[in-house]
Design goal:
single chain, 276 residues, alpha/beta, 34% helix, globular
Length: 276
Amino acid sequence: MNSKICEHIVNEGTYIPETDTVFPEKPDTPLWNPPLIKQLTFDKNYPFFDKSFKARLMNILTYIGIFTIVFPLNTIRYGLKIKGRNNLKKCRKYFRNGAMTIANHVYRWDYLAVLQAVKYRRMWFPAKTRNILTSDGNIIRFAGGIPIPEDISVIRNFNDAFDYLHSKKKWFHVFPESCRWDFYEPIRPFRKGAFSIAYKYNLPIIPMVFSYRKPSGLYKLFGVKHPLLTLTIGEVQFFDKSLRRSEAINLMRKKCHEEMVKNAGISSNCWEYAGD
């Protein structure tokens, strides 16, 4: 669905990266399609949340590597700056039963940047089954990825995994744009799945947005081509439980999209907020 609705207008000082990528007309068209190197069957016997000792150990070791190695590298390589942490501090009491973070999906390490923003917290996220079958499959699983089954008869097993994690008051992350478009500046439409999950567990949603800065200083000196990144943590959003489920989910999707558009320095976004 092409849901472009208007001319895209940014505020003064908002940097739009220069890129050679030709972006598709459909906002949920994947651009990242690495070869499949594994064969797995995502059926009722597949451990969507793997409770084995090996899986738990690898999850812990992966996060130790993320916290100690990836966080500094993310800052150095992409000049990552994080703004708005006060929005987390002032709402801390609302996170006792968990929370959900969302962000625009714009570079390979964006989930790791979200982890960096919430500081040393392990999170879990729905992942496309295709990505689990690539060379990144193990790291996706060990970092908290739970594959979304294509077989509708197995959805219950997927849901059971999130039910269990929510019972442990864990945090979730979702990219509501569905797929990654590297260094894309507008905010694409959001699919409703993230908001349906958050509504089910009555989780507050923390909208974060990546925006860009022109390479300068040492980055310019060494000829860095990609933009530098700023991750802004927006105002925490809560469901209006006085509304019907469908209305509350749609309103939350709209509010989160507007908050991210605003924090990205966009005055008129060229996409609608709803992608399905």
